[in-house]
Fold this sequence. Notes:
By secondary structure, the protein is mainly alpha-helical. The protein has helices spanning 11-26, 46-49, 118-121, 138-141, 153-185, 189-201, 205-213, 283-286, 291-306, 317-346, 357-361, 425-443, 460-469, 478-481, and strands at 32-33, 39-40, 369-370, 376-378, 403-405, 410-412. Helices cover 35% and strands 3% of the residues. Helix 12 crosses helix 13 (460-469).
Amino acid sequence: MATASVTFKSREDHRKQLELEEARKAGLAPAEVDEDGNEINPHIPQYMSSAPWYLNAEKPSLKHQRKWKSDPNYTKSWYDRGAKLFQANKYRKGACENCGAMTHDKKSCMERPRNVGAKWTNVNIAPDEKVESFELDYDGKRDRWNGYDPSTYTRVIADYEAREEARKKYLKEQQLKKLEEKDTEKDDENAGSEDDEEDGLRIDEAKVDESAQMDFAKVEKRVRTTGGGSTGTVRNLRIREDTAKYLLNLDVNSAYYDPKTRSMREDPLPDADPNDKFYVGDNQNRLSGQALEFKQLNIHAWEAFEKGQDIHMQAAPSQAELLYKSFKVKKEMLKSEHKDKIMEKYGNAASEDAIPRELLLGQSEREIEYDRTGRIIKGQDVSLPKSKYEEDVFINNHTNEPVQHEEKRLATWGTDVPQDLVLNEKKLQESLKKETARRKEEKDERKRKYNVKFNDEVTAEDMEAYRMKRIHHDDPMKDFLN
């Protein structure tokens, strides 16, 4: 398998080699051994196990795959800041012309430029800096805290402790001032005893402030973004004493738990008693609180966009929310106006106005007699007008006969079909003739125009004539009609 060099093999040798490799993979033949006596995994591909030709390997081996480059001597140390070495008494050749140190030149000198450099004065020769060079690994080069001295943080702690002591001292002085003012104002002994009780019950303000500083640990869940993202952390997802929702039902086919979003939409225990369950799935949160308002906001944005409004929920959520609020205000105003019009026209049966006494008690001085069917026999002062139309004659798809009302002095027809849609036979015949003439004119290419501009409103009779004249190609009776 792991051959040293590529040599020519006959077809038979190649077949035997393949059979041997298959046997080694199946465990029927012993694995190949390298020059160190270690077994070579038969499942390693040949392009990995075979050594390159330039290595001149005579025996099978995997040394060419091993790491041949040794790791350098990486260090975790850091520069010794501000360390000084030897300090000369006179200027040395090759040193800095400004300060006289050997570790840098005049261009890199960090001291103040002298009027006359150390090269010419031989006075105040600066000591040599400690120059170090480290060979850091990948992580060491990118470690931002490399070289940090943790002992320096004690100064930060000391500053905070001094600030805390000063704050407590100031609060104590303020508290003593308040007590002295109360003692001077009240000279009564009873008042003094009451002050003592108040002092006993008063909470130390320093402790209150300390507890106020710890308010950052109280993480509350607030939905801010349009996507419903919460500013809370993992701490407020559930109480740690409760069982995790993904452990309520260990059945594989139960409600699915998404570990990335920590959500379980369905109820893990649908057959359990609702009074005993503290968790019924995340879908209950999708139908409560601000979720419904957010859903209505999205629907309003979609419908407004379809009707030509320049609104997009994801691109401009604040604009969409303001438009939705203005839409709701206008809708309520229209509802109230419509309600006022109806109330003004028909009145309000549920109003708190006093009902007339004759209607409340059902008494009046007019005497009216009724028959068994409820019709008035006598006593009616105003006679009902009789219709001038024939009774039990229904024309033009009417459901009852025409009745003439005295109030409007007009004949109104009781029908389920609107008045505009009732077809007139004479108009229908005229429309049929017009449709026939129009079709004949269309067939004549000499009279057909390229772009005809005319204003012709289509009436109901025209549409009925068009439907009657149109040939339905899928109609099985079209040949019979023609």
